[in-house]
Amino acid sequence: MTGSGPPAPAHRAALAVLRKDLLLELRTLETVPAMALFAVATLVVFHFGLNRDTLSGQLAAGVLTVTLLFAAMLGTGRLFVAEREQGGFDAFLLAPVDRTAMLFAKVAALLVYLVVLELIAVPAFALLLSPPRLGVALPGVALMLALGDLALAVIGTLVSALAVQTRARDLIGPIVGLPLLIPALIATARGLGPLLDRHGSVSPQGKWVAFLALYDLVGALIAYAVFDFLLED
Amino acid sequence: MMTHSRHLRGLAIATAVTITAALTLVFFYAPLDADQGFVQKIFYLHVPLAIVSLCGFVLGGIFAIGYLRTGRRIWDMRSYCAIHMALIFSVGGIVTGSIWAKASWGHWWVWQEPTLVSYLIVILMFATYQPLRFSIEDPERQSRYAAVFAIVGGAFVPLNFIAVRLSVEFVHPRVLNLEGGALPGSMKLVFYISLVGIALLFATLMKYEMAAKETRAETRRLRRALHACEDPGATDRPSRRTAAPVGAH
Questions:
Q1: Cβ of residue B152 closer than 8 Å to a chain A Cβ
Q2: Contact A27, A115 (CB under 8 A)
Q3: Looking at this predicted complex, what is its ipTM?
Q4: A176, B159: Cβ pair inside 8 Å?
């Protein structure tokens, strides 16, 4: 930070990067449509792999969670590619802004991608594998998915920033990210299970909501603490 | 310079003595378990291996914090060696755990045992430390990124244990566990001696690895200096090129 004058506020820098990312995505339509197509294709594979026309309970929750996870992995892998290949990192480091702005912007961008993905994938899931009473349990499902999305976005951003500088980034991203995400996936899948069950409760179990919130909090704090070191050069 | 070869011999002797004593006590002094009989003796190997390897992973994360704070390469080396050794110990831990599960519960793998499952997830997590590290070419960035990973991994170890324990509705009854304190005094004594033995083994092997790394770096440095003395013109360029990252720190 050698530039003159005080650094721009972090939120303005973060908003600028987020706006750039969303605009880029809107113009190229590269990542989110691919994620959505991948998710629908995964549901079809599950239909044949499990040989079931309808799913319910824990099985439905597991299928939905794994499908969303796989699609999220696709988006995560591409998160920093433009920065790496077109000198965005250098430009960002030269700008007199707080480096954490990059973390906020990328987490927000990934979160937007994931929400758009779910707006397509969850109806597709309901249509193709018709889980019972998804409509009634929708607020609970939305809560679990939102908390899960936050976990995916934070850890995904961190792992993507780690992996993008490696030689084998397409390999490193998923193998590093998946074990880190296992606790969040356990909580999402187990929290969704009763919601998609014909005889289960309509609201998610408190322990899974609390655990996911804790996971998101810890993940966010760690990402905030270490992210600067990933941009240093 | 050679800080890590100091005390190495003393440490190695202490390790050998403690481990021999522990094994002797395990086989000739510790009483046979009433339920499981002779098979239970693997407990004296499995539980210390598991505890020491988990501590090793967390230690790797703590050393990594040291590296990010100070920027000194010695902390990076400590972090690397701790995680490397912990990974080796954890493979031993999970194999002995699996053998014990087969002998006492009849299955090689038991999903109802949260400790075993969380332990596997932690191993899967830290098993990616080396692939991540070695696919980064720049040595300084390699250390920095590996340190970030070690800190994140270390912090997620407790979350893993919580998540897996919450997910298991019915926990396998355990005759012997650490929290229960159900161990009779003689078993407890033998267990603690084994734990100290394995911890000493970890420390010795880690120190050996660090000493070996130091020696190799020193040899390389001397060889380069020697070449530079003998024939300055011919080796000038390559030696300066390879020396550049070392000199930068």
A1: yes
A2: no
A3: 0.87
A4: no
